[in-house]
Amino acid sequence: MEMKKIRMGIVGAGTWGETHASIYAEHLFAEPAAICDMNREKAEKIAEKYGIPKVYSDYHDLAKDGEIDAVAIVTPDFAHADAACAMAYAKKHILIEKPLATTKEDIAAICEAVAKSGVRCMVDLHNRWSPPFNLAKQKIASGKLGKPYTAYIRLNDIKWVATDMLSWAAKSSILWFLGSHSLDSLRWLLDSEAKRVYSVKREGILKAKGVDTPDTFLTTIEFENGAVAQMENGWVTPNGNRNINDFKCSVMCTEGMINLDLSSHNLMEEVTEDGSCVPDILVSNMVFGHCGGFSYESIRDFVDRLADGKEFRVSLEDARKTALAILAIQESAKTGQPVEVEY
Ligand SMILES: NC(=O)c1ccc[n+]([C@@H]2O[C@H](COP(=O)([O-])OP(=O)(O)OC[C@H]3O[C@@H](n4cnc5c(N)ncnc54)[C@H](O)[C@@H]3O)[C@@H](O)[C@H]2O)c1
Known about the structure:
The protein has 343 residues and is an alpha/beta fold. The protein has 11 helices and 17 strands. It folds into 2 domains: 6-119, Rossmann fold; 128-283 and 317-340, Dihydrodipicolinate Reductase, domain 2, CATH 3.30.360.10.
């Protein structure tokens, strides 16, 4: 059966922009139709690899391209808003990488652009597609464990992500880069909004390595339904850790508990003379050359739901509330005082 494919544009031809290109290239209802990067060579390289016919170096030109239906915004954390707004006002549906944006003004600008233009928008808070988290959500939502009471979540990266992988780590923080995933997961599992936050940060290890961003944030979050959570987000796990992420989560309910150990699963261990590693099979892997893992599933789901018209599984409102709570956490860590989240 022949069906019209959704023509996807991509802004940002870095590590994750390539991930988007690989999904659209193999999706039955989509095709990667244009890619844009201010560094044109990077866009050209990905275009060649995935057979993308159009390359732009200015996202305004991509916005003007009438042949593009939807656009993925895959620029650095602090650089989502301008491109996202331009696409929305050009009537293109948008998938924005997490976090939605990193300032109150940018968050508001994106929400206004989406509301005024009537386009559809999803933000890639992909943890909801992680099989263990998804099952935990189902179990908690069933009510058989009672009501969520307390939770602990720890989502840390090895140092290499801040020192070597991201050229812009100093213009973001682990709170934006991973805290947005962990906070969205808490909101989803506890089915409530963060009300009051108290965060303590430490810095110095990454600064000594020339990356001016905090090392770690330890945060207590009180939710509107009375649940309380502790959230740890650090960028200083030793590089010898066998996974990029160090990821744990527990939810204590009034009549039961869920424990998730996401990064010590030993699903597969590879051992050589130099050491060993445990691939992140749940997150991303290739099966017979096809993208597998929940970090691909969320992007694929954007296309599926654009095609069938169903509601996205992460709404713009989810991403807006997550980003505003992260801003409050940032403020608390700066002032040393608890902060009420303003929605
Ligand atoms: N969902 C996930 O699991 C996941 C994983 C990694 C990264 N991300 C997110 O994806 C985004 C990109 O991360 P990355 O690791 O690919 O970064 P990256 O530095 O590898 O790539 C970003 C690219 O954007 C380009 N760029 C910046 N501003 C631009 C502009 N105004 N117009 C056009 N191009 C521009 C840069 O030249 C660069 O090539 C970030 O928001 C990050 O948090 C999400």
